[in-house]
Amino acid sequence: MPLDEPYTRRIQPDESPSIGVVRTIAALKNSPSCDLDPLAESIESDAFDRLVGHDDGAVVEFEYEGLCVTVDGQTITVRNATE
Fold first, then answer.
1. For the segment 10-68, what is each residue's pLDDT rounded down to a tens digit?
2. In angstroms, rounded to a whole number, what is the distance separating the alpha carbons of residues 42 and 45?
3. Where are any strands of DSSP class E within 2-66?
4. Burial class for 63, CB neighbours closer than 10 Å (0-12, 13-18, 19+)
């Protein structure tokens, strides 16, 4: 599922960054989140949530489901992994 352009969405107040990533990728792939690979196979989700969940300027970038995901304390940006 290649993206024409990077896609960005805000992390909702009622979701952790890791849940936001899974929801975002599921929506982009038009697939239920339970059909995705476990996020923990790409990144340690508890540490990830603690690191970027405080909005202190930390930025984490990793590959998940064949896409490049960049997360800061407020937004999730997804782009093709080949960009």
1. 999 999 999 999 999 999 999 999 999 999 999 999 999 999 987 678 999 999 999 99
2. 9
3. 7-10, 60-64
4. exposed
